[in-house]
Design brief:
The structure is a single chain. This protein has 133 residues and is α/β, with parallel strands linked by helices. 40% of the residues lie in helices and 17% in strands. It contains five helices and six strands; from the N terminus they run αβααββαββαβ. The chain has a four-stranded parallel beta sheet, with helices on one face. A two-stranded antiparallel sheet has the order 3-5. Helix 4 packs across helix 5. The chain is globular and about 40 Å long. The two termini are 15 Å apart. 26% of the residues are buried.
Length: 133
């Protein structure tokens, strides 16, 4: 499992090429959501992150969806995230929400029926198998 931020480095890609499955985290489709949810070190925009991730072959995308001040379950956020998935063309997408509440509970779990709806949207609009975990 990688967050994809260092996939542009040849040594990282070589190491990841040795594993059977490469899972890459992608929780956002916009810069704002990415900054709020993932808080990447340094300046990293979503376009650059996706460029780096696209250097990896045969990936599985793993995405967490949450409610709260940062809510990536809204249709406009799911739509742009799905557009990025189309470009990445992963083998599949793993969709999940919080398993437990974080210490600072600024986000809340997204209900399973919403996650199922997002998975259905990905499958029908991008043709990528999506599974809720």
């Amino acid at each position: 499992l990688t967050n994809g931020t260092t996939c542009h480095r040849p040594r990282v890609r070589a190491a990841l090429a040795r594993v059977d499955k490469r899972a890459v985290k992608l929780d956002a489709g916009t810069d704002w959501i990415m900054q709020q949810m993932n808080r990447p070190a340094g300046k990293l925009c979503i376009t650059e992150l996706l460029r780096r991730i696209s250097m990896l072959p045969e990936i599985i995308v793993q995405s967490m969806f949450v409610h709260g001040p940062v809510d990536n379950t809204r249709p406009e956020h799911v739509k742009v995230w799905t557009e990025w998935l189309k470009r990445l063309a992963p083998l599949s997408v793993q969709i999940y929400s919080l398993d437990r509440m974080p210490a600072k509970s600024w986000v809340r779990e997204a209900p399973r029926d919403e996650l199922e709806s997002i998975a259905h949207y990905v499958e029908s609009n991008a043709g990528i198998p999506a599974h809720v975990h």
